[in-house]
Write a structure and sequence with these properties.
The structure holds two protein chains of two kinds.
Chain A (H helix, E strand, L loop, with lengths): L4 H45 L2 E3 L4 E3 L3 H8 L1 H33 L4 H16 L2 H12 L4 H8 L18 H26 L3 H9 L4 H29 L3 H6 L11 H10 L4 H30 L1
Antiparallel strand pairs in A: 1-2
Chain B lengths: L1 H33 L3 H4 L14 H8 L1 H34 L5 H11 L4 H14 L6 H26 L3 H8 L4 H12 L1 H17 L2 H6 L8 H11 L4 H32 L5
Classes of the chains: A mainly alpha, B mainly alpha.
Chain lengths: 306, 277
């Protein structure tokens, strides 16, 4: 066979590429090994268990029974709906409060004052959800400051104290309020960074044209923030949808499941009722819902990373 | 015109101060309850300012060896998780930032996807595996489990920082006779200290505040971490509010103090995860 110089070239570049891979995976393997063993294996395990009836002693194949039972249970649908309410309420208020504060911090104010205020406003986000939840349990207790405030405003009577967390009508609302308070700083910080990335020239040009502040907000600020807003809303939706700590700490899902969300329901089914198979099916449904939302986020993130 | 602008200016300052006071009220409430005697906590309507000042609750927490042990445990777990995540994370981030290789895109997608995982799903298999391996009630199990959700974040954040640092520095060091690893240790890592601090702090925060796995994998009191210890106070001693708040203050203080000094890096860490352009 005659020697093809191009072929030699191809072989060499092939070897060069192969070397890149060897080097890259030489650095990557510990991370991939850990994540593979600790993420992929458990996922497959849960997927498998969702088709079994699992007790501590034995596993029995039941096919799709767990799923069928799940979809027939009205409590599951109620919990799913409550999770959606909790997520939608938290995320939308995070956005409103976070954007409002970011705009205030972005105004032309003293830089040291801005940094001080930003720093203080981040503090709720540093607290563990457990700690934050406990502070709110205390504040919302019948003897707590929430009632105290309402009494001094004359809304509540001294004799009828309201039990915010013990009432099925207000339990989910109370947990949502705590979650709004704890996590708004994430939005504030992200949106402030987004605002700082909008070029000043756009506003200067608008000033020359005599644009009103509202028009500037609508035509410059919001379009400039679109990418950041989409990112934080998606991330926060995913994080809130899977949240466990706020509900578990504040109400344990009660009273009468009125504040139950998917994460706590799965936990109780698995670790209190020991229905591991049923809980696995529930977890798979949650995973699939998150997967759809995540796919949107992952597509955006991968496009940004390039 | 000037007067109007001045008024707007004052309004901005006033609104910010008012918003900060409202948002920090729960934190302030935690502080004031922690220095009250417990009988005063239950008063209806509550006193806005404590009538009697006492550090009884703090001394109760600090004198209890059981509670102090949870601080030691939490520091140990959070520090170990941070070191492991940064070490392994920096290696992986280097590979993703410096090489072009087959599977790169798949690795990136995998890393981003793992951050979206419902963690409660992992609880069930983790519990079984940890029990089978005899790791139930050990801090080792917590460290291993926490790394799974801090590692992807560390890799992605360090990757975006490494990618901004020109290759020339390492190449120059390699020409001067350094090995690749030597070049990384001598040029890239010192240059990336803001990202390392930012990612490290955020990892520490996540590990320090984690609750779900600590509930599932730890039962014994001498292995509990702060979050689970605080929760047991709530569940077991329902009325001991001043102790619970003092404990909460002590548990939050390290993070708040670290944040005051390292705010710049921390904010960077928060934003780097999501703003990539």
């Amino acid at each position: 066979m005659e020697q093809d110089p191009r072929r030699h070239e191809v072989a060499r570049s092939f070897r060069r590429r192969y070397r890149q891979e060897l080097q890259a995976y030489g650095f990557l393997w510990p991370a991939l090994l850990i994540l593979g063993v600790l993420m992929v294996y458990p996922l497959l395990q849960v997927m498998r268990m969702s088709f079994y009836e699992v007790t501590l002693q034995k596993e029995t194949w039941v096919g799709l029974d767990n799923y069928a039972q799940l979809l027939r249970t009205s409590l599951f649908w109620r919990v799913l709906w409550q999770t959606i309410l909790f997520t939608a309420g938290s995320v939308s208020l995070h956005l409103v409060i976070g954007l409002g504060l970011a705009l205030l911090l972005h105004a032309k104010i003293n830089i040291r004052f801005r940094n001080l205020m930003r720093g203080m406003l981040i503090i709720p986000w540093l607290l563990a959800p457990t700690v934050a939840g406990m502070i709110w349990v205390l504040m919302l207790a019948p003897f707590g400051v929430a009632n105290g405030l309402l009494i001094s405003l004359g809304v509540l009577d001294l004799s009828v104290t309201f039990n915010w967390l013990g009432n099925p009508d207000t339990s989910l609302l109370s947990v949502t309020a705590m979650n709004v308070w704890r996590a708004f700083p994430f939005f504030m910080v992200m949106l402030l960074a987004g605002l700082q990335a909008i070029p000043d020239e756009l506003y200067e040009a608008a000033d020359i044209d005599g644009t009103t502040p509202l028009a500037k907000f609508w035509y410059i600020t919001l379009p400039g923030l679109r990418g950041v807003i989409a990112t934080v809303v998606l991330l926060d939706s995913i994080w809130t949808f899977r949240a466990f700590d706020p509900v578990y700490v504040m109400t344990g899902g009660g009273p009468m499941n009125s504040s139950e969300v998917l994460a706590t329901a799965i936990y109780f089914d698995a670790f209190q009722k020991f229905k591991f198979g049923y809980a696995s099916a529930e977890a798979m449904v949650m995973f699939l819902i998150l997967f759809v939302v995540s796919a949107v986020y992952v597509r955006r993130a991968v496009r940004d990373i390039g | 015109m000037r007067a109007r602008r001045r008024a707007a200016h004052v309004a901005i300052y006033a609104t910010l101060v008012a918003a900060t006071i409202i948002m920090l009220f729960p934190v302030a409430w935690m502080l004031t309850v922690s220095v009250r005697p417990n009988v005063e906590v239950m008063k209806i309507p509550p006193d806005w300012i404590p009538a009697i000042f006492t550090v009884e609750a703090y001394s109760k927490v600090l004198r209890s060896s059981r509670y102090l042990k949870t601080f030691v445990n939490t520091y140990f777990v959070a520090l170990a998780v941070t070191l492991v995540s940064l070490g392994i994370g920096a290696m992986a981030a280097y590979a993703l930032a410096r090489f072009r290789f087959r599977g790169q895109r798949a690795v990136l997608i995998f890393l981003i996807t793992t951050q979206m995982f419902p963690l409660v799903l992992l609880c069930i298999p983790y519990f079984q595996v940890v029990v089978t391996l005899g790791l139930y009630d050990t801090l080792t199990s917590l460290i291993i489990v926490y790394v799974t959700f801090t590692l992807p974040f560390c890799i992605l954040m360090l990757r975006s920082y490494f990618a901004q640092i020109p290759k020339d520095m390492e190449e120059a060091a390699m020409v001067d006779g350094c090995s690749r690893v030597g070049a990384i240790l001598r040029t890239l890592l010192p240059l990336s200290y803001p990202a390392l601090i930012g990612a490290g702090l955020y990892t520490f925060l996540l590990a320090w505040n984690e609750f779900l796995f600590a509930v599932v994998l730890i039962e014994a009191w001498d292995k509990r971490v702060l979050t689970t210890a605080i929760y047991s106070l709530l569940a077991e001693f329902v009325t001991d509010w001043n102790t619970m708040m003092a404990f909460s203050v002590l548990a939050s203080a390290p993070l708040v103090i670290a944040f005051i000094f390292l705010q710049r890096y921390m904010v960077r860490g928060m934003t780097a995860g999501a703003i990539t352009s």
